[in-house]
Amino acid sequence: MSACPCGSGRLLEQCCGRYHAGEAAPDAEALMRSRYSAYVFGLEDYLRATWHPSTRPAALDLHTPPLPQWRGLEVKAHHPQDATHATVEFVARYKLNGRAFRLHETSRFEKVDGRWLYVDGVQHE
Fold it and tell me: Whole-prediction pTM value?
């Protein structure tokens, strides 16, 4: 058993692994963490399945080099707006070709048919 890469401090099987296996994430933050973990593991099908159909890309191309090395996730804020809308602000750190980067984004989520979906995000400098 290994620690979940989302930074929750829990084991993968007790955290994002169960959402990757099909269980619905209980809130937007849990979905966002599971999507980060899906990027770490290259789970393109999961990422597409949890992306709102109105903004979902046709393909993600996660396996074409150069591949990022994901280094960590920090959730800065989770703001439920109502029963079906929320935002999550986070910083994801990664390396690409040995160079360090950080993605700071506020993502929008919508709950559709009982499942949270990623809609889009605004990146911060």
Answer: 0.95
